[in-house]
Write a structure and sequence with these properties.
The chain has a single domain (3-174), classed as Alpha-Beta Plaits (2-Layer Sandwich), CATH 3.30.70. The chain has four helices and eight strands; from the N terminus they run E-E-H-H-E-E-E-H-E-E-E-H. The chain has helices at 23-39, 57-63, 111-124, 195-207, and strands spanning 3-13, 17-19, 78-81, 89-91, 96-104, 137-144, 150-152, 165-166.
C-alpha cells in the first residue's frame, strides 16, 4: 500500500549556532539548494520544462504543484522534522541537534542523496548567519528511527541496517487512553483533538486521500 522508513540524525555543530524560532523552513531551504545543485545539469532551466522532472527528487520535493487527486499541493515524499523549541536557540561550538526524516514509497532509495545533501548543507551552514561563519555542522550519526541500528556513523554508510515497513502492516493497538506529544504547533482544529480528528489529520497529512507514493489506490474518506 505505502512503504515508509524513518531516520534519526544527530548533527554536531562545528561552529557557534544561532537558530531561529522556525527551524523547518531553514532546513528545507538550504537542503533544497543542495539537492538541486547535486542533481540538476542545467540550473538555468525551469523545472517544469525539464524532460527528467518526473524522476527528479528536487522536483517532487519543491516544485510539483498539483497532487494526483484534487487541486491541493501534493504531500512531499521526504519530510525533514527538526525539533521545535518555541524560542530562538543559541549555543557555542560543539552543540548537538537531533532531527528526524520520514521517507515514503520509492523515494526511500534516495537516502544516500538525502545524507549527502545534508552533509553539504552543514558545510555551507544554515540561514543568513552562515555568512558570518555560524551554523555549520556535520552529521555525527544516522540511525533507523524505530531501533538503535545505525546506518551512518559519520563516515560509512550501511543500508543493511535500514528497515522499510508498509503502513498496512502496522499493528492496530487496542487502547482506551492515549497520549500525544506535538513537536510543532497544531492549528485548524480544536485542542485537544478527538481521536477521530487526530486520525483524520494524520491520514490527510500522509496521503491526502490518494496514495501518491505507494500503489496509487484511492483512500476512502
Amino acid at each position: 500500500m505505502l512503504k515508509l522508513s524513518k531516520l534519526q540524525l544527530k548533527l554536531h555543530f562545528t561552529t557557534p549556532a544561532r537558530l531561529p524560532y522556525w527551524l523547518g523552513s531553514m532546513f528545507r531551504g538550504v537542503f533544497g539548494n543542495e539537492v538541486r545543485r547535486m542533481l540538476c545539469n542545467n540550473l538555468d532551466m525551469a523545472c517544469i520544462d525539464c524532460c527528467t522532472k518526473d524522476e527528479c527528487l528536487y522536483y517532487y520535493m519543491y516544485e510539483r504543484s498539483v497532487a494526483k487527486r484534487g487541486y491541493a499541493p501534493p504531500q512531499r515524499p521526504i519530510i525533514i522534522i527538526p525539533p521545535f523549541f518555541g524560542k530562538v536557540m543559541s549555543f557555542e561550538k560543539d552543540g548537538y541537534l537531533n532531527i528526524e526524516i520520514l521517507l515514503f514509497g520509492e523515494y526511500i532509495k534516495f537516502i544516500p542523496h538525502v545524507l549527502l545533501a545534508l552533509r553539504l548543507s552543514g558545510q555551507d551552514g544554515l540561514g543568513a548567519e552562515r555568512h558570518y561563519g555560524l551554523n555549520r555542522f556535520e552529521i555525527s550519526s544516522a540511525q533507523y528511527g524505530l531501533s538503535d541500528r545505525h546506518i551512518f556513523d559519520g563516515s560509512k554508510l550501511d543500508l543493511a541496517n535500514l528497515k522499510v515497513i508498509d503502513i498496512q502492516d502496522l499493528p492496530i493497538p487496542e487502547i482506551k487512553e492515549y497520549k500525544i506529544g506535538f513537536k510543532t504547533p497544531l492549528s485548524q482544529t480544536t485542542f485537544p483533538p478527538s481521536p477521530e480528528q487526530l486520525i483524520n489529520l494524520i491520514r490527510n497529512r500522509l496521503i491526502r486521500f490518494v496514495n501518491e507514493y505507494g500503489d496509487s489506490t484511492k483512500i476512502q474518506k
